[in-house]
Specification:
By secondary structure, this protein is an alpha+beta fold. The chain has a domain at about 30-90: Alpha-Beta Plaits (2-Layer Sandwich). It is built from three helices and four strands. It has helices at about 1-25, 45, 75-80; strands at about 30-35, 55-60, 60-65, 85-90. It has a two-stranded antiparallel ribbon with strand order 1-4. Strands 2-3 form a two-stranded antiparallel sheet. A hairpin with a 2-residue loop joins strand 2 and strand 3 (about 60-65). The longest helix has 25 residues, at about 1-25. The model has no long low-confidence stretch (mean pLDDT about 90).
Length: about 100
């Protein structure tokens, strides 16, 4: 029975370390919109938990923009729902 507890403890520890590693890795990332691929469907806006993206209507077209870049946690939820590959993660320090 002790082996089961040890195994569960190791699995739990690895899960926590994996999540911590992903957070550290994404700390310097930011969402970027590839305008040429974006159709303005707004699925990414609905999926973003931090309300980072916003839709602007210009000349009868809907354009997606990054409204609050400091709130972006680089979780990738918006990228996962985009069928047109219009979103990507880039480094915050890119000039």
């Amino acid at each position: 029975m002790n082996i089961v507890y040890i195994a569960l403890g190791i699995v739990f520890l690895l899960w926590i370390l994996g999540n911590l590693h992903r957070k550290i890795k994404r700390r310097n990332k930011l969402i970027h919109i590839v305008e040429s691929n974006c159709t303005g469907c707004q699925r990414c806006i609905k999926r973003c938990p931090h309300k980072v993206l916003e839709a602007l209507k210009e000349e009868g077209k809907v354009r997606i923009v990054v409204k609050n870049p400091n709130k972006c946690s680089a979780c990738g939820d918006c990228i996962a729902v985009c069928k047109f590959k219009a979103l990507e993660l880039v480094s915050k320090h890119t000039p």
